[in-house]
Amino acid sequence: MPSMPDDLLPFLAGVALFVVYLCWSAATEMGTRWPGRRK
Fold first, then answer.
1. CA-to-CA distance for 36 and 27, rounded, in angstroms?
2. Global pTM?
3. Cα–Cα distance between 35 and 29 in angstroms, integer?
4. Where are the alpha helices (DSSP H) in 1-39?
5. How far is C-alpha 16 from the geometric centre of its chain's CA atoms?
6. 3-state secondary structure of 16
7. How far, CA to CA in Å, does 35 sit from each of 3, 22, 31, 32, 38?
8. What is the pLDDT of residues 3-25, one digit of tens each?
9. Contacts of 28 (CB under 8 A, 6+ apart)
10. Could you give the CA distance from residue 12 to residue 9 in angstroms, rounded to a whole number?
11. Cβ–Cβ under 8 Å, residues 22 and 30
């Protein structure tokens, strides 16, 4: 695997955190529709 530029790692980390936040917010909003995740 080729080495990535140093400035690309923080960018990928930020994108990963953003995607995780979107999935978490969607899961909490729709949690009542999922069995076992009722709040």
1. 12
2. 0.54
3. 14
4. 8-29
5. 5
6. helix
7. 43, 20, 8, 8, 7
8. 767 889 999 999 999 999 999 98
9. 39
10. 5
11. no
